[in-house]
Amino acid sequence: MLQQFFLVCSGVDRDLIRDCSRGEQTKYAGIGATVFFTALMAFIASGYALYTVFDNVYTAIGFGLIWGLLIFNLDRFIVSTLRKKDSKYQEILQATPRIILAVIIAVVISKPLELKIFEKEIDQVLLKQKNDLTLSNKNQIAEQFTPEITQIQQEITDLKAAITSKEQEVNNLYETYIAEAEGRKGTELVGKGPVYKEKREKHDATLQELQILRETNAAKIATKEAAITDLITKQKTAEAETQPIIDRFDGLMARVNALGELPWLPSFFIFLLFLAVETAPIFAKLFTSKGEYDLKLQDVEDAVKTWVEQKVHQRKTLLSTDISLNNKVYSDIAEEEEVYQYKRKKARELLQLQADAFLNLQKKQF
């Protein structure tokens, strides 16, 4: 039962192979098994590849099954259409397009399985890429907010500097009128004279200005600090909104690119393995001599070709004979007097009818 299934997979004529030897049946059953398992690996590979794209098991299985059947049909077609020739050069020339197609199929099948085999290494590469993307994303977002935040911070610094400058001015005026009272500076007279009162009044006025400046600048600083807090919040929100996009950076294309950053030799050997599996049925037919099945198949095809050529030749001969007979028959009829008189009579009647019709048409116009 299993052998019959693999024979179906190989694309052989079951009526012909049934009459062949056991060895011949086993050979083509092996070719059919290779075709089947290649399609099975194609199903698994494409299913995994599509799972990384759609992240849905049922969708991946459905499309994977379709792809596996497509590969099965292609391989079966390739193997079944190869014919043994009398010359190896002709066989290789005939198989070249099929070998190229097999190489393409091997690449398509092997790449998703490489992604699965090297999944851990690919995840490490993707993690590094995600970290780089996260840092780059934060820097790009920061470039949108940092200039404005820096400007506001500078304005806050200027406001605080204005208060500090005013405080220094008040302290200097305080030191001035105290020194005047103690007689250390100014008039150098001990006591609270007119000069002392003048300097004290100037200090008090400046102190009042300082209080007003503190209140005004404190309100401005609070507003600007709130603006900075709002900008920082917006920056964090932008980072949080874009981070999921980076976290999802693990699709099929990203994994293929990450695989390209790994050492190429292991991937190359896996590709060679699938290439060997994919081309095995083709080379098996190329490098084996004509077997019993090939001879019987060639005999059947030659018989059909001969029969078709005979039918075409018979139709051509029949047509040529029929044309020759018709020419001779009509030539003999053309020489008979009776046919001539009959044709002449009918021609005269036709001319009369045409003349009457023309006369009636002319009468209607008057």
**What is the CA–CA distance across the termini?**
95 Å
How much strand content do the residues show? under 5%
Shape label:
elongated
How many strands in all? Answer: 0
Category by helix and strand content: mainly alpha
Radius of gyration: 51 Å
Q: Helical amount among residues, as a percent range?
A: over 70%
Q: Which segments are poorly predicted (pLDDT under 50) over 5 or more consecutive residues?
A: none
Total helices: the number is: 11
Q: Which series of helices and strands comes N to C?
A: HHHHHHHHHHH
Q: Could you report the average pLDDT, rounded to the nearest whole number?
A: 80
Number of domains: 3
Query: Main sheet, how many strands, which sense, barrel?
Result: none
